[in-house]
Give the backbone structure.
Amino acid sequence: MSSAEKVHILVVEDNPDMLEIYTNMFKGESRFEVDMLSDAMHALRRLEDKKYDLVILDIIMEPLTGESFFVYLRGNAKTMHLPVVVVSVLEPHTLDALKRLNHSTILQKPIHKDELFKAIDEMLSRRTNR
Amino acid sequence: MSEKRHILIVEDKPEDAELVQYELKRAGLDFEVRCVDNKEAYLRELDAFRPDAVLADYSLPDLDAMTALDLLNDRRPLTPLIVVTGTLTEETAVDCMLRGVADYVLKDHLAKLGPAVSRSLERRAEREARKRAEEALRESEAKYSALIKYAGDAILIMDENARIVESNMRAEVILGYSAAELSGMDFISRHVETDRQKADGHFKLVSSAKKRAFYEAMLTTKDGITIPVEILINVVEYIDKRVVNAVIRDVSERKKAEVLKVNVIRDITHKLKTPIATATMACDLVEEALQKNDDELQKSSLKLMLGSVKRLRSDVDRMMDFFRMAIERPVESPGPTSLKALLDRILSEEGPLARAKGLQLTASVSEEADEVRVLETDLYVLFGNLIDNAIKFTKQGGVAVTAERTDGRVRIAVEDAGAGIPAEILPRVFEEFFQANAALPGMGLPICKQIVDRYNGTIAVHSEGAGKGTRVIVELPS
């Protein structure tokens, strides 16, 4: 599988343990090419330069929160329709404001690998069907 | 009454005084009598004998009955004076009665004296009883009006159309209007628009069915601020008419505390959920590693689990520190602790974290600033938190701790080149559970503030703004 055919995912998560968990989860999953950033501000800049197919987003982060990141994302024409999987410890109902932003799904930590991959596949198939 | 009545006779003819006493005895009165025939003796006996009634001849050489009456009214008001005289014109009689003489008896009709005295004494007893009742009423009215005036809750008295008739001081404070402004104001319209229908319903039910109602609402003050209140309304009888009484309690503080409690619980829950979530996910990875016989994954996921559980433990410890601080008494004159040794210990613990981020971590303590009168455990929690925060929020550069002695105290600065703090939230950093990101419990600074306060020290946070680093200055007794 060449890099062009792979699914490019950007993980935005500031918890080192979570980053390691993602690393392990994606290990051996050759259809994905995953970049990880622990600062949402850097992630926004990265999205300017590189095209991704999907973002996995944490919410409780410093200094820029996942919520603000998401709002910036949707305000930019380039990333307006970029699928986002929110993975946060917060109860999904407290993230109602995010649900109104299109092309997103919300998972609550802890998540199982299967659950995450299912959400990713769903988001991607929705995108291609559009 | 079993006690003998004291009767003072003002008479200069002893034989007349005898006759008077005879008549009183005949009338069956149980009495003790004293006779005086001049003003000086009269005044003395008014105080010493304390008569229940005075029988006065109309005109004595130096004391006429009217003067005797005035003196009596001055000293022993309500005590009856009966004029006993040989002659009395009708005109004088009327004058006597007008001026407050209880009765008059002519000496040639002394048979009437006994009943006249009895009647006067009875009337006096009635008048005294009435006076006592009036005094009691006045006292209780004063007591209740003070109670209402100074009540901790606002009290409004309204007519049947919800127009305010009277208000107490607390009502002026809560609503921001003076009593004069409140008078005539429509109570329903003080409610915020969305509460008016409810308030009107309660009011009509109360005033028509004489029921009582209790409800929560938001009221608008004169300044346009809305405040949460609890309102109890009922119908009371008030000076011959029925009015509606409202007792209003300002519950802003309670509501604030409720919100804080909810936030604290939510923040603690989230703080604990994060390491629990990563530990759980690491468990899943261990399971997967076992299935796949992947030694490397097994090792790394076990390490992850340990790390998460450790973090969970340190978060719980910090919370315990915080709650311990909230209930413990200040320490009385603790012995000196070496600041340098303590900072070295913290630096060696935090070193790996700082190195991992490529940060320089330094501490410099001048010799005369080494001793501080703070318990070592408190110092450890205080600077552990400050340095930990500084490292966490700094991406590059370094964290520097410096300590020097100024004005008999030790002044310690913890400076970083990190995220900084926006000006608008700077004043709130010491609030419990407040942090730039509200979902993340910021117990570090509130704990620090509690510790510093316990030793009468000071702590201040300076930042030029977001992205411009943070400087925390602590002053402690040395």
Notes: Chain B is about 50% helix and 20% strand. The radius of gyration of chain B is 44 Å.
